[in-house]
Amino acid sequence: MTTSKNNVLIIGTGGVGTIVAYGIHVAGKANLSVVVRRDYQRVSKEGYKINSVDYGEIKGWKPDHVYSSVEKASESKQVFQFVIITTKNIPDVMKPEELAAPVITPGVTTVVLIQNGFDLGKPFIKKFPNNYCLSGVSHIGSHNHDGVIEHTGHDKEVIGYFDNPNFTKEQQKAKSEELIALLANEKNTIVYFNDAKWWRYRKLVYNATLNTVCALTGLDVARLEFSGVLEKVSVPAMKEIVAIAKADGCELPDGIVNEIAHCESGYFFEPSMLVDVKKGNPIELEVILGNVLNVAKELKVETPTLSLVYELLKGVQYKLKEGQGLITVPKTYVSNDTHYSNV
Amino acid sequence: MTTSKNNVLIIGTGGVGTIVAYGIHVAGKANLSVVVRRDYQRVSKEGYKINSVDYGEIKGWKPDHVYSSVEKASESKQVFQFVIITTKNIPDVMKPEELAAPVITPGVTTVVLIQNGFDLGKPFIKKFPNNYCLSGVSHIGSHNHDGVIEHTGHDKEVIGYFDNPNFTKEQQKAKSEELIALLANEKNTIVYFNDAKWWRYRKLVYNATLNTVCALTGLDVARLEFSGVLEKVSVPAMKEIVAIAKADGCELPDGIVNEIAHCESGYFFEPSMLVDVKKGNPIELEVILGNVLNVAKELKVETPTLSLVYELLKGVQYKLKEGQGLITVPKTYVSNDTHYSNV
């Protein structure tokens, strides 16, 4: 039995990524590297500061290797058995499969996407057909507040795989369990779920409908219900997600719409996309809404509510990208000469 | 021939109302009163300051009477032949027919609504069935900047009537011309248009579709086109307005959608509803969108785009009203137990 540890690289150590990293450290079965961009100077000198509901107060902890960019991690010449991506997934700003490409060894590296959204594996499997692509759905509560990780909700991760037809289901399940062995320790809860697609559809019932509509209206989930928008917009949108899932072979349980519509009861909660809009950050629009609408189109499922929310949020995204200098708005406005017919 | 002048009261002297008032003063055929709320102290002492494209620079002009409220105007015991309302029309905050009721003498006062929106006459005609209710659509460019009226776009008003079945068309046309005689002078352009409903449908092609969607996305009209939202949301919405108008007997001209979609070409223009959202003011949602959707429902015209934009903007309106202290949000959030079925 070999004692050599797996080389694991985590890209993005915000609220989720840092706790995943620390969990791996506690499990003690990996040689751990992280890519930290914005906070590189501080983390590489002083380590992380974490107030964790699972691990207590942690000061000055450093992974084995800290890199300021994916390119720097690549220059280390390590071969990574696992690359875990926990950044926001905004392919219209930066495609994660291109971001991670320098540290992915074809046929060797298993890619793990612990990110929001739907159908995230597709571009990776297309670009790296001989690599496993695993799915992590995080149910953690954890945020980076000015460099301090405030971990307030227990770390639960649901692991599965984005189906790659070049591997058998058994191989992909075995690879998922290999990952779980690296992540799991006595404090966190890391579980395997056989149908990542089903699980992500389930999460979309919330994310594609409450998260998006809160972002568009500026309302938290309580005000969304008080104002009537939950009932008039989000609930019809939820039913569309349920219909797409069903057409795609994923039967969601009876009562899911009612359950999700009221899951935040008691909290004036601001979902992540609303938080991003308020901070002026681009939103995860394509993975939370665009990808599932592509599936709906292929399967010919009608999505009047989701499609319109998507088109409106594309306008919001345009403004957010402009604010970040990611696009340049023309200085003069000459309306194009498209002719719209009257009917 | 009697020399006694008509008593005219204008409620609301912002950008539009002040120029309407000054135009009446120049025409010289009325005993002119105004209700000024926010700026009462200044206007009653110092008069108006106006920089006008039509009338030049005006300082210290005062109408014959200045009142701080409708109630104060009512206490003057004047009988008003005409009451002209130029305030924003936000019936979910303040019903204009209730606001104006103290100065409307049944069977005598002609009500003139120089306001945005559709079907504005209905509540007045219901409450005052023996009074004329006239329509003014303003095509002016004029704004109140910190108490100075900056009048930059020529004053053009299109006058007609909201059809009251208790009067003949000839009577209502004659009353409209009576109003025009009071308003018109050598500098402004006051025209009669026979079909106020048609004219307001025409204006809705812009207001219900560009104004609303800019307010919802935060985009000006140029960015609305650049981002694709104009084509994907506003244009389908325009086609719905055209369809409602047609079902309601108002045939809008071929090419109207294309014309309105590109009418702002060259300008990074922020429509009024977006300006209101940015200022935190409640929006004219009901008169610009709610009223026409009621008509669509009666006439069984499908309005998937407009209806969803309306429901989303109700959420925005909720937040705006909360910001102005007009509603109180419950301190605790216990989600109601509505049961939404899955399909």
Structural notes for this entry:
Two copies of one chain form a homodimer. Chain A is α/β, with parallel strands linked by helices and 343 residues long. Chain A has two domains: 6-194, NAD(P)-binding Rossmann-like Domain (Rossmann fold, 3-Layer(aba) Sandwich); 197-323, Orthogonal Bundle (N-(1-d-carboxylethyl)-l-norvaline Dehydrogenase, domain 2), CATH 1.10.1040.10. Helix content of chain A is 43%, strand content 18%. Chain A has helices at residues 15-27, 40-46, 70-75, 96-100, 121-127, 169-183, 196-217, 221-226, 229-247, 256-261, 272-279, 285-298, 304-323, and strands spanning 6-11, 30-35, 48-52, 56-61, 65-67, 82-85, 110-114, 133-138, 141-145, 148-153, 156-161, 189-192. In chain A, the strands form two sheets. Chain A has an eight-stranded mixed beta sheet with strand order 5-2-1-6-7-8-11-12, with helices on both faces. In chain A, strands 4-3-10-9 form a four-stranded mixed beta sheet. Chain A is globular and about 60 Å long. The mean pLDDT of chain A is 94. Chains A and B meet through helix 7, helix 8, helix 9, helix 10 and helix 13 of A and helix 7, helix 8, helix 9, helix 10 and helix 13 of B.
